[in-house]
What we know:
The protein folds into two domains: 115-199, Roll (Pdz3 Domain); 201-446, 2-enoyl-CoA Hydratase, Chain A, domain 1 (Alpha-Beta Complex), CATH 3.90.226. The chain is 23% helix and 23% strand. The chain contains ten helices and 22 strands. The chain has helices at residues 38-53, 72-79, 101-108, 137-140, 162-173, 229-245, 263-273, 324-332, 403-414, 428-436, and strands spanning 97-100, 111-112, 117-123, 126-132, 148-152, 178-183, 189-194, 199-200, 204-212, 215-222, 250-254, 260-262, 282-287, 298-301, 312-316, 337-342, 351-352, 356-358, 361-364, 368-371, 387-388, 444-446. Helix 1 runs parallel beside helix 2 and helix 7 (263-273) runs parallel beside helix 8. This is Tail specific protease domain-containing protein. Residues 1-19 form the signal peptide. Residues 187-390 form the Tail specific protease domain.
Amino acid sequence: MKRISLLSLLLVLVFAACKKDKGGDDPTPDPDPPAVSEADKVKDTTLLYAKEIYLWYKNIPASFNARQYADPNEIMEAIRPYSIQTGFTEPVDRWSFAMSQAEWNDVSGGIAGDIGLGIFFMSNNDLRVSYVEPESAAGKAGVKRTWRITSINNSTNINTSNASINFIVDAIYGGKNASIRFQKPDGTSVDMSLTPSTYQEQPLLLDTVYSAGGKNVGYFVLNSFLGDTSQMKASFSNLFQRLAAKNVTDLVVDLRYNGGGYVDLQEEMANYIIPAASNNKIMYKQQFNDLMPTNWNSTVTFAKKGTVSPQKVVFIVTHNTASASEALINCLKPHMDVSVVGPSNSHGKAVGYFPIEVGDWYILPVSFRLLNSANEGNYFNGFTPDKVVVDGLDKPWGDLNEDCLASAYKYLTTGAFRAIQREERSDPEMIRSYRTMELPKHKLLIEDRKHLH
């Protein structure tokens, strides 16, 4: 465990009172200094940490007044505009945040409290279920990816207009009871009333192997790098044992809804995917700002795990692919044949943080970046797909006719991406909806091996 003494947090307040004898008159005592509320102490401490830890701390002005904000999260949002990065015209930080310790413990542990659906549009009036959390209310009710949503809380006004999207996002992701009419692939409809519940997210949704032309292509859907790290590492080990038993030669890794998680788990996955020939080569270089101890900057090398040694890997991404999942792609790129397919660039979160305890809060100012062995790491615009392919929301996980998987599989078995089978979604409303309907998940690249005391 590495520790740092933050001198700026050792605030010494000296109060001097000068008294003069005025011919026997009783001296008038100086008034007590105004009391500082606990809330203001938390705000002051939040700012002091930001001025030490934040990757762009030099840009935070001396006049910044933390007490004008309601809470630490507002302070974190207020420092984002100071994230000026060479090569970018706009501030790059969209992610510094704070939350209560209780809420953070759930988020970081992969514990959710909604109805358990992901959604997106197939077309301007065709809303589909993109994924279902198995242990959620929706999962237990039997809802499946591909199902169309035709009514929400008795409203059939479901389209990509701003008003409709706001209504849909609030109803599905807002942690409220929802009455939904689903249309199944066979054309039948079913009405369900779904109640939010607390459940453990299941990051690994599916894995399988396809064989063609002497190739054994492993495919798995990984939705998160969050949860109990020991359990997650055990699931990775079991996954790659299954893939090894089928003599997998190449991989398709589906990260289309993976918003990230722990650096440690990203490392673990990278060590399973990396070809054996790249063992001990540089995976990434972690860089903090120049106020941090130099030994916090570190270089991590690959430590190959398992016997699967793929020649090529294709990642499926969307705008929801972020943070630790993007770091995985970036770390592997210099060492093997890496391709990306999907409907849009990935999210573009090229930086990370670690939680700092302040009162009843955890604050997470962006504090480090990860560079790969080629010193690449400023992918704030996301990774651009080598092949732009729609998210085949009308097909279940693992269906080789699903657009993204079909394109990736064709590339791995023939060397060429699949020709476009349907018109790409260039409609401005559809493009806008990729951001406005973004999954309500924090985009996380968490370093839980650094602590401040």
